């Protein structure tokens, strides 16, 4: 490609609404242009990257035996009503009416449509297993779209759906996709982790997120450097930090802690470790009648150590909290604890509450909690002696760096990540809701065992940039760079030898199948170099009149600190070797 | 590709709502599946064809110097309001509101968005010419979607937009696209014509439709077999069929024609040629005040020869009819002619009307028209003698087969066609409405000269099938067939020599870059052959145990009446030669 023919529009400054580096650099490099909040034009430079990402995904999905199709963007409400998601999905699902006032949704995902296809087309066990995928535009009407195309409203996603005869076969389909995803993210040239993730209401252990490692990532991912354990923070199991409960050594002791309502402040005031304090969190659950009116509420006290954080996903797995919970109101707290939040604890309750202790808290002794009296805490608290044993002991906290790995093979570390892929075992959730069956070998209809597998295509661009950039701009992995090599001739329009050498190199590299851009715009060298560094082309060759007189050109990899002089006679071979072609 | 891994779902019968052959065959071959009226899943078999069509278009667009981008499906109302099309576009444009109640449209086309990009990004004449294109989903909420994906609501279109400095440069861009379209349709393997088309309000002569020739086509296209003249029927110029007006030879003669209200019936009754009769069509135009209330209506009488049809597009170019017309009401007709429709004519009017005569009618003498009295006509009518010369003489009829070609090089023929592409010079219509300017060499802002260039990607599938099918199914051109070669082994699962030979041929053809499907489903031969004939794979190889024992296989092209025996040793070379690989 020649630059004059192409479309290059770099900006000196990113627009004010670009908060994170990938958004800023995508705007400055002219990869995308905003049309409306969360809705972007994919400009020619950005589209080249998208197509390369798409092609890697497509090749590996095909290699894994998946079959590509395309399901419509505008989908009739009826299918969404069959699974109940027409009502359950919030305003993220964009609903619309056609000219005949019929209801439709813009697809945020396609479980309903693909299950409808399966129940019509996959009639026999002989047609299974089958994995259908599409690379198709999605729309999710986010309340606050941000981060450019990392969390846009209109975006591109690869979504795949597997259909199997039974749970065992579905497990194989899952493993097959997991392996394909590893190949995809390896080929994309990104540093990532596949982490176990929560399966929510589906249950089972078959859910993995593919997280691109980046300091700016929104997700905390937990891994064990000594083993292959990796999970997202919602799922990662926190083992108790104490082997057993020590015997009490202190008497119960109410201490004044004026104005100190956090565990950290209290520990500092009392000159003790934060690990001796216990944090109180008050939740509530409601029972409702058929009309939806609340007939009874229950208040819960959840206890985690002062240096730990409550994990709401884990709390949601506690018996009694599974059907949903909320934080208690101040009125409910005062009613049960006789005190406003900040000085709460499990000792001396005004009305009984259900107590859930984290595994570690259940093994603590001589600990410090709120006294249920403003400006007072109690030290020397001990289970059994000062209060009953907890109603429930459970893992309800986030792991922290240094915790023992649940696989017993080392200690945990935490990184930040950006979720770009997800493999998920669905079971018969959708096939039962839509009565999607096939005839099994025994002649009986059975519900498909399903899995779903997503990759955020446009999101990968943002994640790749968050992971790979410097002060000058983007640093694309070779496999998804908009161009692999930029040829920068200085004085292309005036120095004949420069033009001849640049054209020859361009022709030779292009013939070798390398994706080259020849910058024939006639920009000054500084502006030209800045553009290609901002855009992030991984290999650059500079040809100048002066260099050519000495028979030399300059090569510089995007991560190289300095340029390398290369004899013009060796140039094409040198560049080919660098790009691994 | 192996058939078991792929997704093949053929049907014996097409669904009842499939009216035309392409729709029936696409459904039966499993290329598409209906999700909702005019909204289809592109099934794996159909998607392969779509991708091949896309790739040919993309390659030729890139070769022509156009640059690909993608513009969002969901576009803000504000841009459409700038050009006034938010109000002008009918219910075909699907409008929707996001969660914040802001107005958006699903793109039916993208002139507004691309012009917005140009005014922001193309600031200097040095950036011109530029041609931006996308291959992107479109949505048009047709009142009565039909013909499968030939006239669907959600469909795939390539739309390109050129930006130029001046009219001359825009003409070059137009010619460039015209040439690219010829290459595209040549490579698609379709028989087509590029025909001149009406430019509507834009004016000028720069509009061509690319029509795939098919008897079932909706459009009538006119061409001259003796020259390169071709136009759609709306535009094709009808020359007068008479060189000059002959002197009157008959007296005016009112004749009873009871119950004969058509020219054909009257000519038959009177034993004369239809070419001696004149047909009367009554139109009306309205003048309105600022409130839209009609302040004055004018009635027009349009006269074409009895064997000709009025061309409404041409009528709309007559001075006085340019701003829109309607057919007159019966009350208006009775008021002006003193008679109900069926026996109208230009002689003996009750109130004056504007008379527009077709060029041929203006040169007729001794002709027959209605007498403005039920059950009576008048013969021997002559201009000047019996009625004043017409107010306007113009080309207002459709050409008919055998008319002289407007280029003077022969006579016209008429074919049916399906419009699959359109190149159109837009001028400054959009750039002025949106004030999209660039700085020209003289330092002054100028409006872009624009062109737009569409190809209906999914429509091409339907058009190709309408043109290429037989009783057994589709006959794809090689370049867009879902698979180029089908290998049909008889007894793949039981005859080892068949399996070995089939696998070897599959490997060798695949290695040669040929798109092969190996039918390993174990279907009976009849069912297997019927499937591939229905799906329309252009080349088929049959391998059987019996044949192999004689060292032979069978090759059959999809259009061949019989199979050809080929020695197994020559088979791969033979097939490669047939597919031109």
TrEMBL record, chains A, B:
Annotated EC: 6.1.1.15
Primary enzyme class: ligase
Catalysed transformations (reactions): tRNA(Pro) + L-proline + ATP = L-prolyl-tRNA(Pro) + AMP + diphosphate
Record-linked SUPFAM superfamilies: Class II aaRS ABD-related, Class II aaRS and biotin synthetases, YbaK/ProRS associated domain
Molecular-function annotations in GO: proline-tRNA ligase activity
Localization terms from the record: Cytoplasm
Keywords, ordered alphabetically: Aminoacyl-tRNA synthetase, ATP-binding, Cytoplasm, Ligase, Nucleotide-binding, Protein biosynthesis
Domain Aminoacyl-transfer RNA synthetases class-II family profile: start-end pairs: 38-477
Cross-referenced InterPro entries: aa-tRNA-synt_IIb, aa-tRNA-synth_II, aa-tRNA-synth_II/BPL/LPL, Anticodon-bd, Anticodon-bd_dom_sf, Pro-tRNA-ligase_IIa, Pro-tRNA-synth_IIa_bac-type, Pro-tRNA-Synthase_IIa_type1
CDD domains: ProRS-INS (cd04334), ProRS_anticodon_short (cd00861), ProRS_core_prok (cd00779)
Self-association state and partner proteins as the record states: Homodimer.
Role summary: Catalyzes the attachment of proline to tRNA(Pro) in a two-step reaction: proline is first activated by ATP to form Pro-AMP and then transferred to the acceptor end of tRNA(Pro). As ProRS can inadvertently accommodate and process non-cognate amino acids such as alanine and cysteine, to avoid such errors it has two additional distinct editing activities against alanine. One activity is designated as 'pretransfer' editing and involves the tRNA(Pro)-independent hydrolysis of activated Ala-AMP.
Description of its domains: Consists of three domains: the N-terminal catalytic domain, the editing domain and the C-terminal anticodon-binding domain.
Similarity comment: Belongs to the class-II aminoacyl-tRNA synthetase family. ProS type 1 subfamily.
Protein name: Proline--tRNA ligase
Source organism of the structure: Niveibacterium microcysteis
